[in-house]
Write a structure and sequence with these properties.
Layout lengths: L14 H12 L2 H11 L10 H6 L1 H33 L1 H19 L27 H27 L3
Helix pairs in contact: 1-4, 1-5, 2-4, 4-5, 4-6, 5-6
GO cellular component, one term: endoplasmic reticulum
Organism: Trichosporon asahii var. asahii (strain CBS 8904)
Keywords: Membrane, Transmembrane, Transmembrane helix
Length: 166
């Protein structure tokens, strides 16, 4: 059995990828905590009951903020994996994609980013149908861009391997 060692060298700009990943990891924490406190929903309850949310707008806003957080957690594995892989070949593009996704997710979740006097977009308004309005769609577009970048880079790199006879 022969063991072959390979050097693993990160691109010079790879630390930029960490900026995008760090932002992803902290995205919704403050928003959910803020709404939990305002709605007086105690741990370990994940959501306020449907009856409470129907009569208390703060509890409905908390439920929506919590659901937005859960939705974000559902897409984080894809975003992190795509950012990490794409960052090995194109660190600036990976960072731009991750930060754009974070920016879109902020508009998706946090009503304070919409019109202050009359919040019309974002999940945390308590109106779930408003979650994809306006700049919130940037999150989905960015995630698709990251995945597209991974597919393109994978095809290019596999062609190089094939051309080299590997």
């Amino acid at each position: 059995m022969t063991t072959v060692g390979h050097a693993f060298v990160l691109p010079a700009n790879y630390p930029l990828v960490g900026a995008g990943v760090s932002a992803v990891l902290l995205l919704n924490f403050i928003n959910v905590v803020r709404h939990r406190i305002a709605a007086k929903v105690k741990y370990p309850a994940v959501y306020a009951s449907e009856a409470e949310a129907a009569t208390d707008p703060k509890k409905m806003q908390f439920n929506c903020a919590q659901r937005a957080h859960q939705n974000t957690l559902e897409s984080v594995p894809f975003v992190l994996a795509a950012t990490a892989y794409l960052g090995l070949f194109h660190p600036k593009a990976a960072t731009a994609g991750a930060l754009s996704w974070v920016f879109g997710r902020i508009f998706y979740t946090d009503e304070r980013q919409s019109n202050q006097a009359n919040a019309q977009i974002n999940y945390s308004t308590g109106k779930a149908e408003k979650r994809n309005a306006g700049p919130a769609v940037l999150g989905s577009i960015s995630m698709l861009g990251l995945i597209g970048g991974v597919v393109y880079t994978s095809v290019v790199e596999c062609r190089k391997l094939y051309a080299a006879g590997l």
